């Protein structure tokens, strides 16, 4: 991203009381640095979106990016696809994120159709879409709201459309989970975060970011109506899934 982004130092000094994590002005100011240093594989996941769209998106169809933050997925798509290939709608609840995303997208990809809507993805009036991206957003919704959202997204997708779901995940096996989380903390240390930053951020995210298992994600996608989903990317405790809404009579992906 070309924007003026500060280095994330939010949890670098000892805090008397660690507040619940929120996407406020301070987080927005350092968000590109924070997410790049905190999410293993973030850049690779973004880099694949254009390739997935080139393969699965109907020409000119809408792409929703739900919980778009600064519009990174929109920027990635615009960098890989011509303007006529898609219309982008980013949605985010945080006014500070939305303001910055609008500025960035207008400056960086003026020829593409890019809009950013401020709103709650649980209540949005969805228009038909060819692709829906949820990159590290579902994990911030209350668990009891996740099924209803996924069903609405399934309804909004055109037949032949795809949903990309990237999340922090928890492993079913306790030891496997502990190993992944420990190596994740090593990953953060290697990216310049101190033990204090790692521990205070962990406290701030408790009961705010509630991860599911991969099995729970696949089961939810199936309940929502998706005939197939698979995990296409995993790096420690972060993963990305793709779910397909079959077009009636169309050959299944991988059978072409
Ligand atoms: C980890 S960030 C997403 C990162 C972003 N997708 C990217 O790839 O850079 C999660 C975002 O979800 C947004 N969010 C959380 N709950 C939301 C909701 N109910 N409706 C809309 N946005 C929401 C937050 O404001 C935040 O910007
Ligand atoms: O730092 C962590 O522990 C994270 O889980 C990273 C994570 C995420 O996965 O959404 C958490 C909050 C920030 O929005 C950026 C990244």
Automatic annotation (TrEMBL):
The gene is cmoA. It comes from the Bacteria. Its EC number is 2.1.3.-. Catalyzes the conversion of S-adenosyl-L-methionine (SAM) to carboxy-S-adenosyl-L-methionine (Cx-SAM). HAMAP family: Cx_SAM_synthase. Keywords: Methyltransferase, S-adenosyl-L-methionine, Transferase. NCBIfam families: carboxy-S-adenosyl-L-methionine synthase CmoA (TIGR00740). S-adenosyl-L-methionine binds at residues 42, 67-69, 120-121, 135, 202. Belongs to the class I-like SAM-binding methyltransferase superfamily. Cx-SAM synthase family. It catalyses: prephenate + S-adenosyl-L-methionine = carboxy-S-adenosyl-L-methionine + 3-phenylpyruvate + H2O. It is an enzyme of class 2 (transferase). This is Carboxy-S-adenosyl-L-methionine synthase. GO terms for molecular function: carboxyl- or carbamoyltransferase activity; methyltransferase activity; S-adenosyl-L-methionine binding. Homodimer. Residues 63-161 form the Methyltransferase domain. GO terms for biological process: methylation; tRNA wobble uridine modification. The keyword Transferase applies.
């Amino acid at each position: 991203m070309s924007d003026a982004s500060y280095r994330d130092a939010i949890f670098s000094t000892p805090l008397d009381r660690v507040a619940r994590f929120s996407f406020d002005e301070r987080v927005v100011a350092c968000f590109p640095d924070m997410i790049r240093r905190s999410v293993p594989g973030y850049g690779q996941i973004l880099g694949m979106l254009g390739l997935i769209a080139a393969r699965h998106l109907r020409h000119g169809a809408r792409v929703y990016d739900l919980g778009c933050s600064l519009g990174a997925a929109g920027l990635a798509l615009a960098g890989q696809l011509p303007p006529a290939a898609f219309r982008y709608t980013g949605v985010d609840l945080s006014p500070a994120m939305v303001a910055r995303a609008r500025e960035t997208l207008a400056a960086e990809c003026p020829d593409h159709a890019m809009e950013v809507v401020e709103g709650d993805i649980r209540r949005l009036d969805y228009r038909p879409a060819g692709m829906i991206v949820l990159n590290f957003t579902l994990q911030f919704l209350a668990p009891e709201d996740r099924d209803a959202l996924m069903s609405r997204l399934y309804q909004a997708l055109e037949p032949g459309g795809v949903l990309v779901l990237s999340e922090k995940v928890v492993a079913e096996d306790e030891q496997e989970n502990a190993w992944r989380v420990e190596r994740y903390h090593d990953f953060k240390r290697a990216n310049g975060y101190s033990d204090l930053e790692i521990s205070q951020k962990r406290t701030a995210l408790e009961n705010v970011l509630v991860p599911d298992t991969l099995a729970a994600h696949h089961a939810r996608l199936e309940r929502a109506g998706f005939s197939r989903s698979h995990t296409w990317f995993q790096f420690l405790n972060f993963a990305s899934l793709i779910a397909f809404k079959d077009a009636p009579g169309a050959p299944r992906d991988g059978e072409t």
